[in-house]
Amino acid sequence: MKKILIILCSLFLVGCQNYRELNNTAIVSAIGIDTDDNGYKVSVQIVNTEKNSNEQENLNNPIVYSSNGKNISDALNNINLKSPNILYLGHLQVVLISEKIAKMGINDFTDYFLRNNEINKNFTILISKDNTPEEVLNVPTSLVNFPRGNILGSIEVSSTLSGASNNIKFTNFINDLKSKGINPVMSSIKIVESEEKNKKNLQISDMAIFNKDKLVGYINKDEIIGYNFITNNIDNTIINIKCNKNRNMSIKLKNINTKTTFKLKNNNPNIIINVNSKANIEETNCDLDLKNIKEKTESEIKYLINTTINKIKQNYHIDIFGFGNKIYQKNPNYFKSIENNWNEIFSNLDIVINVNTDIETKGNLILKGW
Prior knowledge:
Layout: H1 2-15, E1 25-36, E2 39-46, H2 55-60, E3 63-69, H3 72-82, E4 86-88, E5 94-98, H4 99-104, H5 107-115, E6 124-128, H6 133-137, H7 151-161, H8 170-178, E7 185-193, E8 200-211, E9 214-219, H9 221-230, E10 237-242, E11 248-265, E12 268-284, H10 290-316, H11 323-330, H12 332-338, H13 342-347, E13 350-360
Parallel strand pairs: 1-4, 1-5, 5-6, 6-7, 12-13
Antiparallel strand pairs: 1-2, 2-3, 7-8, 8-9, 10-11, 11-12
């Protein structure tokens, strides 16, 4: 009986080992990582848990502390000296990285977050584009799910409805960074002027392209959609096709599915991208011919994909699509033989794009000549 009591007591004690008094804890929702002449500048956004008569003001005005340090850990310790409460990183949701650090290389940054056992590794990682992370964190709007109207929600909505953004998690970034035949990407965020006077908003911006752990450039909204077609990270989007010189038609694509395969031809890799989708006509000022709509829709999808691939091939010469990883997964011995020259091979890679879109009609659609 005594042994049973001892075991039960020890279980209760284990359950309390990470207990923190909320009144003495500063819950960190977002961290910004920047650099200065002597090391790092780190900023933290604290969840405002206080309640008063003006609750909405509390929700929108962030609490931000910043400090410098020789490394990230040192800077956070210095922030702890300024904060009335102890920083708690267990609910971290967003980490912002300055462009300067990203261009220098982020291995040191990733090392800290991988080693810190308090941090859940499933946070969103973003480049702070055209602004410092501290400036972004100080914009009076909610970056995270504390409590509402957050930028993470905007990423998810944009990704789900249009495929024009990606919620890149730290774990996804690290997996791509460590994998063979692929280079990682990361979404970016910037400050934009609000329609309201003297106010600013946050906006998800271009997608950052990395060569290993270094930022080398960006792709724009249309190219992000092309990237998501290629990597099968898109479910729905709306594209516009021209039906004559002055008129356009909006097509809503759904049930998008992409399969990428490779085959060897004369011992050279060839990539085949097969895209299937369904489509509805959202809006039109044109006479309708389903055959022409189908052809123009498929042509536009091919254009988005080709434009993205050609930009990456010609400007960056690195594989962000994971074509090399597909080859490695299918034929590791062959990929090992070309791995050292993969960037050059990728830049001259033969890629076949096949697109099939089924146009669905709603109601009594009258078909006319184009």
